[in-house]
Design a protein that fits this description.
6-stranded mixed beta sheet, Rossmann fold, alpha/beta
């Protein structure tokens, strides 16, 4: 049974933009799936449909075989808590410490008063420190986030997502703003989480070199439609030009 499944999912935004058009996709438990395509092709919308941050206009979203398309209220919040999300621009609190930012990932599991006062149980603090060890930042636990590099901030975001004890990680262009060497560093930690914990990772990317190095399977979108699905080494030059058109050479550089 697939961990996620999209069945004929369409998303039309209020301004009339069709972000996804009848997309069907299975994401297997434990795989590392890359979603590629030009900006505006629907990558971010696809990821946000998986964790229900975006409401599909039509079709179904399934999780472990159960239809989660119409979850509301507490059930929807619980569902989202089980899926870690990593964003391009980190979404960290710059004035807080690294440890405090990581602990934010556990808010769904602590009393509201504790989160407001910033007093987390000792076992959660220990868990946060272990997750910082996973991403190689344990020694930075008490540094302010504003002191970190971009790559380090993204690794903090990964540790924060792990605090949710998620079934999967969804990474929305997590290395788009990073230089090539730092991008590989961040991708290696996502690979580590995937392989060490068997955690499903769905990652939207722009650069084919990263896809070929880290992904086990690739889905390509163009204008909201799936135009390719297969292994990274099956993306020929012809397929690549079909996916990216005139921008193929620029994307290939990295």
């Amino acid at each position: 049974m697939a961990l996620f499944e999209l069945r004929e999912v369409t998303k039309v935004f209020p301004n009339g933009v069709v972000a996804l058009e009848r997309v069907s996709l299975r994401v297997e438990r434990g795989e590392f799936l890359a979603v590629i395509g030009l900006s505006g092709s629907g990558k971010s919308t696809l990821l946000r449909c998986l964790n229900r941050l975006v409401e599909p206009s039509a079709g179904q979203v399934l999780f472990e075989g159960a239809d989660v398309t119409h979850l509301r209220g507490r059930a929807l919040r619980q569902y989202r808590c089980g899926i870690g999300m990593i964003f391009q621009h980190f979404n960290l609190i710059e004035r807080r410490t690294v440890l405090e930012n990581v602990l934010v990932g556990s808010l769904g599991r602590v009393a509201v008063w504790r989160s407001l006062l910033g007093t987390f149980p000792e076992e959660l603090v220990e868990e946060a420190l272990r997750n910082l060890e996973v991403v190689g930042l344990a020694e930075k636990a008490f540094d302010r986030v504003r002191m970190l590099s971009g790559g380090q901030k993204q690794r903090v975001a990964i540790a924060r997502a792990l605090m949710q004890r998620p079934h999967a990680l969804l990474a929305d262009e997590p290395v788009a703003s990073l230089d090539p060497a730092t991008a590989h560093s961040v991708m290696r930690y996502l690979e580590e989480v995937n392989q060490r914990f068997g955690m499903t990772v769905v990652c939207s990317l722009h650069f084919l070199s990263l896809v070929r190095r880290y992904a086990r399977r690739v889905v390509a979108l163009r204008a909201g439609r799936v135009v390719f699905e297969g292994c990274p080494d099956e993306i020929t030059d012809e397929w690549f030009r079909h996916i990216y058109g005139e921008e193929a050479q620029e994307v290939e550089i990295r």
